[in-house]
Amino acid sequence: MGFENIIARRYVRSKRQMRFINIIMLVSVIGITVGVAALIVVLSVFNGFNSVVTNVLVGFDPHLRVEPVRGNRMAASDSLMQVIGNDPRIAAFAPYIASKALLVAGRMNRVVLVKGVDDSLVDGVSGVKQRTVLGAFAFHDTPQRAGAVLGLGLADRLGAMVGAELTILSPVGVDAMVMQFNQPVMRECSVVGVYDSNNKDYDAHYAYVSLATARALFDMRDNAVSGVELRLTSINDADAVKADLQHTLGPAYNVSTWYDLHRDLYSVMKVERWTAYIILCMIVGVATFNVLGSLTMGVIEKRRDIGILKALGATSGSIMRVFMFEGILVGTIGTVLGTGIGLLVCFLQIHYQLFPLDPTVYIIPAIPVEVRWSDFLAVSLASMLLSLLASLYPARKAARMLPVQAIRWE
């Protein structure tokens, strides 16, 4: 340990009477502590909400989706399925057909997205089957009536629970119906299941039918589908698998990850997170201004010490390091205390739910918190960097001081 570090530590923990400089230094430590703790807590809350949203969306949506670039149809050929299935990172895949249609139940009607799936394969690419709370996700189509699975919000708006009858009217051939008075393409269905995905948009706007029913409704011939949905063994491989599939399939197909399907939402969440990080860093920045002020006044107060050290042979670099070490030490104390307080608050929220939420309004019982060590590293680096910058000016001022001027009147 060099003498510069020893002198800096001695200045920080000086046992002399409390002076104005010491008060400013104490305020600096408190400010850095509060700023670091606030940063850690807020970033952890953002992480928690991000994980909740991702779990809800990814639990319903696939990890990857392959669609044709032009038009809304693609051939679910064996060669295409073989290309997709050859990747060991792909755990399951299933074709689907999706289009808007009108659902009529009694006097109620809603325009929704009707999605045709294979009830034996959908479990591998989506969590909708596990989210079925009434009935079962099994269509059991007959020539007279098909099966349909509705979202809880949609079933409530239509007044159609399990066993209710409804009619699906397809938009295919609407023009010909109006001009030639033809009968619209429709299918009589029975509600066989109701799912609850904890997402009001999905629950109120999605209805599931079998692939055969969707193919008849939307005039999808020759084994055509709207796309193929994939579930990976690890969601972290989504971008890599997307790049490989896009290269293999070529420009005729568009491959989207779970992030791409909700890019606008995740972009807004990322902007909010960075905005909160920058704003809270300003709190630490204000505290480091106090460090700058206290160190500057400390340089003036310790002119005699600086002169004596230089007279004894200390270099300008050594004097500069003394005051820089002092500023870094103040920043380290505040950072360590703030990190400990932030981690304690996160621990209490995770285990004791200090800030609960109304379960009748929200899908979670309390404010979610997820601790990531990368956030601790980012916050600590920002705090230490600001403390280092704040100590740079007074340290350079002390280093330029001439020993003759410093001890002339001593």
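(the above was protein one; protein two follows)
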Amino acid sequence: MMRIMKIYLDNNNFYYETEKLAKVFFPNTKFEEIHQIPEKLVPPYIFIAKCCDDGEEDCKIRVAVCIDDFHKSGFVDVADNSEEELLSMRTLYDILVTFTGVTPPWGLLTGVRPIKLFRKLKEENPDRENENDVQYAIDKFKNIYRVSPEKTALAAETEKTESEILKLTSDNSFSLYLAIPFCPTRCSYCSFVSSSVKQAKKLIEPYTQLLCREIEETSKMVKELGLHLESVYMGGGTPTTLSAEQMTRVLSTVNKCFDMSGCREFTVEAGRPDTVTFEKLLAIKSAGVDRISINPQTLDDKVLENIGRKHSAKDIYSAFDKARELGFDHINMDLIAGLPGDTEAGFKKTLDKVIELSPESITVHTLAMKRAAEITLSGKHLDKKEAQTAAAMVSYSTKALRLAGYHPYYLYRQSRMAGNLENTGWSKPGKEGYYNVFIMEETQTIISCGAGAVTKLCSDEGTVERIFNYKYPYEYIDRFAQLLDRKKGIKDFYD
């Protein structure tokens, strides 16, 4: 049964980070924020109080946790206001580890982009002698943020590869994202805004026409601003729900409207094998696409059925073979650790079979229990035993992929992930997915077209401004004129 835990905050406003950290240990708990502190605190609770003596700059922070018969407090002296929240969270983390007996592998990190933090720490090293000196960041991860040695090593290795990719970009470069918000069916773990083909089939053609118009109008702004295209990524949803003819129209519009001479990578997600045909792959290949994703998630037919996929492992092999036959020499394959009904042995078997296929890159995701996903709405919660199984799956993938010659090139995390783990992109040397690094590290502008797409405008100072397209296909179609007006914000940003 889900319980409610109170978070009492006295003379501070640390609720956001407190709740996020507490959810790592209590993923199925609801939290209540309270600033008016009563005479008697009502358990279960987390209590954080900041006390400063009159006329003194130094402060003391008390962190207390009371759950059932457990009660423990910790105190921290704070001389620097910028460290108040971090030191409070570290104290809370240590108390919760004592109570639960659980040591999260990413320590007290709860953000999406741990590699971005690692790079920041590396660059602020006061004794840094050269760009390869990472020990300062490693020590901070382990000692300050309580990240495990294994995840710290993974972060250091990933950051090294990412840094080499980020060096390739110029100040006036950007990447283009194209959103296709349709899927043949909705997977039980998915919370993305996408429409099943059965429900939205009549919208696909008008959507395709307007997407081409948006691409055209966007390219005019890009030319006027003198921006250079570095990568293109068509995602979804499932882009291959489009017909071969519709796919040709969209991709040829990109080629016609943008200067592709400096484009390093052109990716299309062909993720669902039940949508992949020889004709569609030929249309993609003919448009100059050099990287595709064919995403099994699992090669266990029973698990595929559990997550609502209407295809078999045999279909995955067939799609992969067709892509190779047409000459695709950069294929990515996605897997998910912790799927309903999957076992540690089953995941190992899937991964071993995928490695035998020798795709150029393999992305290992961890199941995230998103609130809007069918699997969550059906009443399923994050389970400790299942989290341990997911951790064993991810641990095996790290070892097996390294042995097979793959290395980590990008990494990100999501909320409500089984085992508080991560998603990691692995590739053979020289086959990294550039767009994945650009979008995750927020160092390059991403201009997006299509329903649900978000344009991210990155400044030299490291700030990010966002322009949101309308979420749903029908809304995108009905309010297209307003959408184009919104996108004028791109020019305003650069002006």
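Reviewer note on protein two: The chain has 17 helices and 18 strands.
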